Amino acid sequence: MNLKILSIVGARPQLVKLAPIAAALTAEGHRHVIVHTGQHYDADLSDVFFTGLGIPDPDVHLGVGSGSHGVQTGAVMAALDPVLEAERPDWVLVYGDTNSTLAGAVSAVKQHLPVAHLEAGLRSFNRRMPEEHNRVLTDHAADLLLAPTDEAMRHLAAEGLADRAVRTGDVMVDVCLRVRDGVLADGSTPPALPEGIDPAEPYLVATLHRAENTDDADRLAMLVDALACLPVQVALLAHPRLLSRAETHGIKLERGAVRAGRPLPYAGMVAAVLGSQGVVTDSGGLQKEAFLLARPCTTLRTETEWPETLENGWNELIADPGALGEARWTAIATRPAPDAARGTPYGDGRAAEAVAAILAERARR
Ligand code: UD1
């Protein structure tokens, strides 16, 4: 049965997940309509992912841009109404936990369109995070919950959602391993690291963008200080939100060990991580990419939605590096990769195929 499936995306991590899904849906002969909300509009956060990962151009661009949570979420909903009305797809597919995810799910259920949530069931249990509101509300609105892990399935069952949930594995494994193989086969191109980083010497890859780390001036200053004092080069790939908050708070990013540069396209990021000694981040996706690429990760948060990465010390949660003392913090952030095996808690790299099969099996007509 050929279906019409409409994907709603808008922010960088959703484009990474869209890539293997778009390929799998097309391979199965489904009609795939891509709607870009415009939540991310900088080329570095959007266009380079379409070109780099071979995703077809969006069919519809809503162009909503930035704003407070209510403004941004509401703008996506208002702009989606006529699009969903005109398209009437068999499935609306929403991804992850951004404001675009929640807006897409709510708009679709109000038009009685079946909604599937990719990356369902993740929880931080931190109600201060906008992503936590978005993922909980989206899971409860959606008809089909595509869960990446056993842990996600347990969370959904605990919330009474087991009968709508299916474990598919994680589509980020599909894309990460494919791109890793391409990078390793190519081998010749050094990663595009910030100016001043010598790729022949050890370096850490760092990113920082979450609201709870960037919006408070004291917290952001503490985190940048912690990166600056490390005895190894730190390649800080700066999200526009970090640049804008650092400027507002008068915090200089480039000092001590830190050299700041632009966010990288997906293959560039994989190459940068593969060339690195390890990763320091608050990104969910990068924690998992470090795990898949066998680099130790230090996560600047109190909790993670990907607890499987914590097994055997591949990932460490350090919410307050400033309180640890420089020696202890340095030992953690620069630790070598553990000897222990990592297992395959996120699946075998064929999750997008599983998603395509389940959408066909569970379609209403
Ligand atoms: C969003 C998601 C977050 C995800 C992240 C990935 C929500 C609530 N948050 O956070 O879960 O991890 O995307 O990147 O949906 N900005 C630009 N150019 C852009 C986009 C943003 O300059 O193309 C700046 C603006 O100053 C804007 C700020 O970043 O105000 C925040 O952008 P927004 O999309 O609201 O959230 P992110 O921080 O990117």
Explain what you see.
The protein is of the alpha/beta class and 365 residues long. It folds into two domains: 4-170 and 347-362, Glycogen Phosphorylase B (Rossmann fold, 3-Layer(aba) Sandwich); 188-333, 3-Layer(aba) Sandwich (Rossmann fold). It has 15 helices and 13 strands. Strands 3-2-1-4-5-6-7 form a seven-stranded parallel sheet, sandwiched between helices. A six-stranded parallel sheet has the order 10-9-8-11-12-13, sandwiched between helices. The structure holds uridine-diphosphate-N-acetylglucosamine (UD1). Residues 11-13, 39-42, 45, 66, 72, 97-99, 130-131, 209, 239-241, 244 line the site of uridine-diphosphate-N-acetylglucosamine (UD1).
State the main characteristics:
365 residues; 2 domains; binds uridine-diphosphate-N-acetylglucosamine; alpha/beta; Rossmann fold; 6-stranded parallel β-sheet; 15 helices
User: How many β strands by DSSP?
Assistant: 13
Ligand types = uridine-diphosphate-N-acetylglucosamine
| Head-to-tail CA distance between termini | 9 Å
* Average pLDDT metric: 97
Low-confidence parts lasting 5 or more residues at pLDDT below 50?
Answer: none
Q: How many structural domains does the protein architecture include?
A: 2
For the biggest sheet, the summary is:
7 strands, parallel
Oligomer: single chain
Q: Spatial order of the strands in the main sheet?
A: 3-2-1-4-5-6-7
SSE pattern, N- to C-terminal: EHEHEHEHEHEHEHEHHEHEHEHEEHHH
Helix content: 40-55%
Question: How many helices in DSSP terms?
Answer: 15
What is the second-level CATH architecture of the largest domain?
A: 3-Layer(aba) Sandwich
Range of strand content: 5-15%
CATH class of the largest domain: Alpha Beta
The global form is globular
Work out the radius of gyration.
20 Å
Q: Tell me the name of the CATH homologous superfamily of the largest domain.
A: Glycogen Phosphorylase B
Helix/strand/pairing category: alpha/beta
The CATH topology of the largest domain is Rossmann fold
